[in-house]
Design brief:
- This is DUF6817 domain-containing protein.
- InterPro entries: DUF6817, TPR-like_helical_dom_sf.
- It comes from Melaminivora alkalimesophila.
- With 368 residues, this protein is mainly α.
- The protein has two domains: 220 residues, Hypothetical protein af1432 (Orthogonal Bundle); 107 residues, Serine Threonine Protein Phosphatase 5, Tetratricopeptide repeat, CATH 1.25.40.
- 49% of the residues lie in helices and 3% in strands.
- It has a two-stranded antiparallel ribbon with strand order 1-2. A two-stranded antiparallel ribbon has the order 3-4.
- The two termini are 38 Å apart.
- 44% of the residues are buried.
- The mean pLDDT is 94.
Length: 368
Amino acid sequence: MSHAPPLFAPLDEALLQRALPLLDEEWLQRDADLAPVLPVVLARGVGQDWHKAGTFRHHLVGVARSLSLWQQPREVRLLGLLHSVYGNAFVDLVKFDAASERQRLQQLVGEPAEHLVHRFCTVNRAQFVQRLLAGEAADDGTLQVELNGPAPRTSVRLSAHEVAAFAVVSMADTIEQWFSWQDEVYSRFPATDLARRQAVHWAASLWPGPMRPTARMVSQVAALGRALRHPALAGQLPMPPVFGGCSLELSPRDEAAATALYWSVVQLDQPLVDLDGATATLEQAVRLNPWVGEPQMVLAQLYLSAGRNADAARAAAGALQQFCAWGNSWDKRVQWDAWVAWTRILLQSASEGTWPERLDKLNNLALR
């Protein structure tokens, strides 16, 4: 194991400036494209429905936030905000009846956006992911997939624009919601074993479980991003600013190892007498998976505790870069805005060379 600190990505100031307004809970109400739709969605009770690490409202807004940060066009951001309102193969949350309310949604968001929403809700999304990752997109970027429903299922050919939009929204959808509970109940997604019985696997089904970050889905998001580099897909939409503009990969093996290393430090499974073991463990986690912010953020705090201010500043800036690139947290124990706020405190402290020597003073830190 190398003794040198890992390389941390520099902070993109333009990306930071795009992210900061999204820390405000009211950001969506100021979005001219999304704000008119929000009251209609809220009126359907999305704030009362359970969804993974929060409510359905939290999920829809979180997906739309990433898409806004990624500078996606209006219809794709609307797809993010409405991506499950007709229901889909994964959830039974039907907020609009596709048989009777499509025209109402068309009047609200326009026919192109509603078409994307309806198609996204009715195609077999697991099959979409499987076929896209298998390289089955045609030379013109189109992709044949089945619709949901009992066999024999109807197939449709998605246009290149639909394929790109569904890939980008799937990336945002996955990072917003996925943590270890889904790793268990959707094991090996998209090739999930649907025969597993809840009574047999009761321990895996206990929500929310230990709340570990996912050990396998960030690498799948990276693969979806690389699929957007298909010659017929690359120019369809702005490329999300993750994984070096979707140009770099993360192997499943490295992701799993990095998550395990990070979690061992968070759960205090390292020697507690000094910082060396925990620091080396987190440094290796960052080397294996440099694409999420939380390991770099915790490492920055360890560097500050050791008086390594320059290293702490680089690690905090790297963490902030990843948080701003995603617009959602990887470690779901804390919300994205809270991770960002704490990381900015760490960066400020490292830059100023100040870090509390007393435990109680950690409770008083404020951004200046």
